[in-house]
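@here heads up, posting the sequence + SMILES for the zinc ion run so it's all in one place. Ping me if the SMILES looks off, I pulled it from an old spreadsheet.
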Amino acid sequence: MMKIQYIFHSSYLVELSECYLLFDYYQGDIPELDTKKPLYIFASHQHYDHFSPVIFQFMLKYPDCEYILSDDISAEMVREALDQMGLNGSIHRVHEGDSLSLPKAEVEVLSSTDVGVSYLVHADGYRIFHAGDLNDWHWSNVSMSENEKMTEKFRAVLTGLKESLGGETLDAAFFPVDPVLGEGCFIGPVEFLEEIPVKLFLPMHMWEQYSICGKFLAAKPEYERIFYSIHGAGEEVSIKDN
Ligand SMILES: [Zn+2]
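bot reply: prediction finished. Complex structure tokens:
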């Protein structure tokens, strides 16, 4: 079983039979979780909209909790936050190229085109990818050659992801569809969908402008079966068996 809930911005909660995965949480409501299942909390990088020390509070409620943090997140800040709360958590600081065996999940740490990392998680027979700030960021105010360099960097990460997948399909991919990019907003998601086999593509980094989902599907109707339109924070994703 896999249950997915959109929490806020780039944060998604995934419930599997054996564990929970929580990605890039900094605010939003988390439902009551089963305390018997381990909770793996991922942060892709230090930006305020992807990481906050509030994540350490989950330890108080869910003791079987492990943290997978990109190593651009200050170790001192983490230590201070834990000291303040009087906690001693299980923290894994990771870098691109690392792989990590957790009791109920295997994690591959991939690169990003912005700060930090992206995550490929194998758990419960599922393959789940969270992009963090990995995207083909096309800004209208930068030169064409800069945008081309970005595309090259982005493609290299996709090649790495493809290799890691070894011909398998992602069951869920969380990926930025950022309206701030204007006309460039769909470039990265479309390149990703063209390159990487995905069963379910879940948009994120939308700055609460959820109408971007409808615009995406109007422009790219061929992805109607794969692209999941999000309408608001807290939304539970219904997964069709296919
Ligand atoms: Zn971001």
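MO: DSSP finds five helices and 13 strands in the chain.
MO: One more: The first strand starts at residue 2 and ends at 8.
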